């Protein structure tokens, strides 16, 4: 595992010492971020983009290096770099530049490992708040993100209700689900079971490749749909294999294994554990008021987007939140993407998202 | 891991040497089976019950020891022990008495381990065929089973079309799915990643507990539904835990871990691998004619039962098979259980299954 530092427009932001949701202090932490487009003089055209579990700050394209949300960010696209100023920071606890378990603990000069404090979605959002403020921005035009990024969007809407005009959560939830926590448990345990994990103290030694690879395989299943797997792989086997050998592989198995091996080259196993934990703990009402009163605090206008084939963040759950907000007379729209891609639709279905997100932003300018 | 031999009415059946679907020979193998009810003189009241992945021959109750399908087998129930004669055998490759990888290889007196030949659903059915014939039964009144048991039911209908009056596949498929194979891949790899697995050569040494425990956790997720997990566990944490500690657990996690630890006490890890493989390879058309022509071979009358919340064996897939059979003018009925239990509904929803299965059998007597 080696996180590659690429020659992109990444900058580092020094966070103030932060008291985390847990009550613990995080000191000397940084966020790495990138921006796309230009902040106008009134500083009212800023959009915060929040990334998902294995994402990073490189949401848009720079010098030919495509970002993970390239289909949505750029001239003439919904997140139009000719009109808006997008900020995307690697989350706290991540491993793409921002402080996380692979960072050096200033107290002793060694990597934190499992000594890094637990960070929540709310902590990530608090860190982003300091970053946004550092630009002199008092009010964001929008906050947008899918999956774990969407969890951050909801936390923004509740934590800083007056600091945004609009918010756009996609394929996500206001609090995580029991089944989501269950899948996370299996991914976590896959890493913990790896003898190379060494209680998180593997830096400078063998990386727990097998564990993270296995976790990623399961992730890749839950991000897609039954139909997509049928269409793409069906029951095809790796052609050179004797089907009746125990070690024979179906093409879908080879695909999962390949996806797993790709992730271990770019992602830290401990970060993976910390981000799973942040999702598990995600609940906009945790430590606040009862759930419905917390929703009441939201002020910004929302476009919520669900995906019909998403079984990790079922559209029905998003509709439930939409209906609660509607009943409270909040300004909220709900749209549902019809897609064979499942949860990962938010990284793929750009045509319809450009139309909906672009239209919604235009309407609210 | 110790497979306990209980004092139940289990009997052992010596199989003839069998050529397997792979072309390999399996010699000196046995099936362990149990029967419930009495075979009549005409020998036309026999029903073969096929078990799922971690099931065994103990489908009904004997001397106060409840079977896994106790809700369906017994006096006055759908599989009425006063009228029918049920036979249930542990599958070939299993670990509850029948020959499998934990059995001793007669060639050298050592456990087979991974030297056991790959067995398919079709091989399991062929072994059951010899067992059924040994009773002098020429025609079964029915063949019934859910999940991997249902795969056997379809294989029976295709392999021995004239040997049954009716067949009842529940929450299952005529060929496995790409997503099913994907989930199986993660479960398999969880075992392979366990250093105690030792390429399957762990007998008499440490059992690969962690790997099988992890595999079972994932299984337990896929057998249930999103809604059930929400209802049963919600976001409750283990109360003694500090939520912001990395090692804190949600109740759903404790539940999965408990289910995992229960399975390792009664199931062999290698058997688990072999049975996953048999599911992966399940396809009634494999090595035969094109899929639709294979369906054409079926002669018996069928009641097919799907479960609306099953995401491992989606009801829509069962409906697809039903419609193909209907179009070929086969005698087939389809019914769908509405259940919050997901795939495991076939082990739980006894009231409606008793009504439908009981009525269907009665009608066809």
UniProtKB/TrEMBL annotation, chains A, B:
Residues 45-325 form the AB hydrolase-1 domain. It catalyses: L-homoserine + acetyl-CoA = O-acetyl-L-homoserine + CoA. This is Homoserine O-acetyltransferase. Homodimer. Its EC number is 2.3.1.31. Coiled coil: none annotated. It comes from Effusibacillus dendaii. It is an enzyme of class 2 (transferase). Pathway: Amino-acid biosynthesis; L-methionine biosynthesis via de novo pathway; O-acetyl-L-homoserine from L-homoserine: step 1/1. PANTHER family: HOMOSERINE O-ACETYLTRANSFERASE. GO terms for molecular function: homoserine O-acetyltransferase activity. Its main location: cytoplasm. Substrate binds at residues 216, 344. The keyword Aminoacyl-tRNA synthetase does not apply. Keywords: Acyltransferase, Amino-acid biosynthesis, Cytoplasm, Methionine biosynthesis, Transferase. The keyword NAD does not apply. GO terms for biological process: homoserine metabolic process; methionine biosynthetic process. The gene is metX. GO terms for cellular component: cytoplasm. Transfers an acetyl group from acetyl-CoA to L-homoserine, forming acetyl-L-homoserine. It holds the Pfam family Abhydrolase_1. It is found in: Cytoplasm. SUPFAM superfamilies: alpha/beta-Hydrolases. The active site is at 147 (nucleophile), 310, 343. Belongs to the AB hydrolase superfamily. MetX family. InterPro entries: AB_hydrolase_1, AB_hydrolase_fold, HAT_MetX-like.
């Amino acid at each position: 595992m080696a996180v590659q530092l690429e020659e992109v427009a990444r900058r580092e932001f020094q966070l103030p010492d932060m008291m985390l949701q847990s009550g613990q202090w995080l000191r000397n932490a940084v966020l790495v971020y990138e921006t796309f487009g230009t902040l106008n003089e009134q500083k009212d055209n800023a959009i915060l983009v929040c990334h998902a579990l294995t994402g990073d700050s490189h949401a848009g394209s720079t010098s030919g290096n495509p970002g993970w949300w390239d289909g949505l960010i750029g001239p003439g696209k919904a997140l139009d770099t000719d009109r808006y100023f997008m900020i995307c920071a690697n989350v706290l606890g991540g491993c793409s530049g921002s402080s996380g378990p692979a960072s050096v603990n200033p107290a002793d000069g060694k990597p934190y490992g499992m000594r890094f404090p637990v960070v929540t979605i709310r902590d990530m959002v608090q860190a982003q708040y300091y970053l946004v403020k550092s630009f002199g921005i008092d009010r964001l035009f929008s906050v947008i993100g899918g999956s774990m990024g969407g969890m951050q969007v909801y936390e923004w809407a509740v934590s800083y209700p007056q600091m945004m005009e609009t918010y756009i959560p996609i394929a996500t939830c206001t609090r995580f689900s029991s089944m989501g926590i269950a899948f996370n448990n299996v991914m976590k345990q896959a890493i913990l079971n790896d003898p190379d994990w060494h209680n998180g103290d593997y830096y400078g030694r063998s990386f727990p490749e097998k564990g993270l690879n296995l976790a990623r395989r399961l992730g890749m299943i839950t991000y897609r749909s039954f139909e997509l797997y049928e269409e793409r792989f069906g029951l095809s086997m790796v052609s050179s294999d004797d089907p009746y050998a125990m070690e024979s592989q179906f093409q879908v198995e080879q695909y999962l294994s390949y996806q797993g091996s790709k992730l271990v080259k770019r992602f830290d196993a401990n970060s993976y554990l910390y981000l799973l934990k942040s999702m598990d703990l995600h609940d906009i009402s945790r430590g606040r008021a009862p759930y419905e009163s917390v929703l009441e605090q939201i002020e910004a206008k929302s476009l919520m987007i669900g995906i019909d084939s998403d079984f990790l963040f079922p559209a029905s759950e998003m509709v439930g939140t939409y209906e609660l907000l509607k009943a409270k007379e909040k300004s909220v729209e709900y749209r549902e993407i019809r897609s064979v891609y499942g949860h990962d639709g938010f990284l793929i279905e750009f045509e319809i998202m450009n139309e909906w997100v672009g239209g919604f932003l235009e309407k609210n300018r």
